[in-house]
């Protein structure tokens, strides 16, 4: 495939120590040679691939020195895009890096569209679609664990598994085909159906396994949405603060403020929590009053976990009981706070209301009990589960929806085969499953979907 030469800043914007302007395409080296001067005067054109060179950038129209740089030269196909790639390492800072980018653009490169480098890697066959999407997740990954999932996927873990499933389906289809074409060799139906059922059942159970990981995968990617709930003055803000202090927020630029609610990302024992903070709300107002019944219901509905805070120094109030009722069908942990004060709360009653959920006592004032709370959160998340790194996780919404479709068609195939539907009809469902799984790795997707996916990338990736 032939493409023009694209360029973009490929390091994050802001005050980095160095910044990189990346060029990719047939003319990448030629364009660089127009503006790069090495002390020896040697052209990049004459240099070996995968080498790095010190020198200056010169604006050929004025002969002014623009920057002092290191230039990496990488010829295709052993590059990210499989094309010739030149990376210009210049000083960080928005002004200087933009000057370099402008210079490159004036001398023949075109500004890359968001995700275009990755798109080229995909179109040039270096990575498949699920790997490309993993690159996108990686850029957005908020915790180490989420990063590992993304890395695993980029590495092709999901692609390999999907590949195995498709291979099994294709082999089954081929075998069925042979049996239909040469009926004289065997009793076709009897021979074919058990083979077909065995393979399809295996594919079905693998898809089910993958789907089981999907809720965790989503959580790893977006954080476990956690709402701190409780009456005014019980210690909600204190709890938020101690969780944030002990587990330094991971991505500060993402922790944004919406009009009503503040979100903080913390990493509790590898579990990413997106703490929905009602601490910005005035102490005298409760969350329901402030943001309205509807909105607070919605916040609660979207929560993966509730931390219900109670005051140990007061008796349980009607309002406390009402809160228990509101969250009775959700995952929650009860935090009985202020245990340093004389106890008035009836702990037995609390246990009763908690109905099997964990109850943790804390004194946030004395910094006691927070570790137990963190352990309880982690235990809830990993309960009965293998450590995240050992599994292939599906966290991408598009993948999840395709897997659901594939599960449906493969189940139809199995049902049909068991119910005596003719083999050539069952074949249609098997073929369809093969196609749907192919969409996950990008084998059977249309151009428009590809464009849409890649436009979601950050510029420069
Ligand atoms: P919120 O209204 O639920 O957010 O409660 P805050 O976190 O603002 O706390 C209300 C008051 O209780 C503050 O004066 C805190 O210092 C105090 N407080 C919080 N935790 C404890 C605790 O464990 N023991 C005691 N004695 N006071 C606490
Ligand atoms: Zn508060």
TrEMBL record:
Domain TrmE-type G: 223-382
A Pfam family the protein falls into: MMR_HSR1
Listed GO biological process terms: tRNA methylation; tRNA wobble uridine modification
The record's free-text note on cofactor binding: Binds 1 potassium ion per subunit.
Cofactor: K(+)
Record-linked Gene3D superfamilies: P-loop containing nucleotide triphosphate hydrolases (3.40.50.300), Probable tRNA modification gtpase trme, domain 1 (3.30.1360.120), tRNA modification GTPase MnmE domain 2 (1.20.120.430)
Assembly and interaction partners: Homodimer. Heterotetramer of two MnmE and two MnmG subunits.
Job of this protein: Exhibits a very high intrinsic GTPase hydrolysis rate. Involved in the addition of a carboxymethylaminomethyl (cmnm) group at the wobble position (U34) of certain tRNAs, forming tRNA-cmnm(5)s(2)U34.
Protein name, as recorded: tRNA modification GTPase MnmE
Source organism of this protein record: Ureibacillus acetophenoni
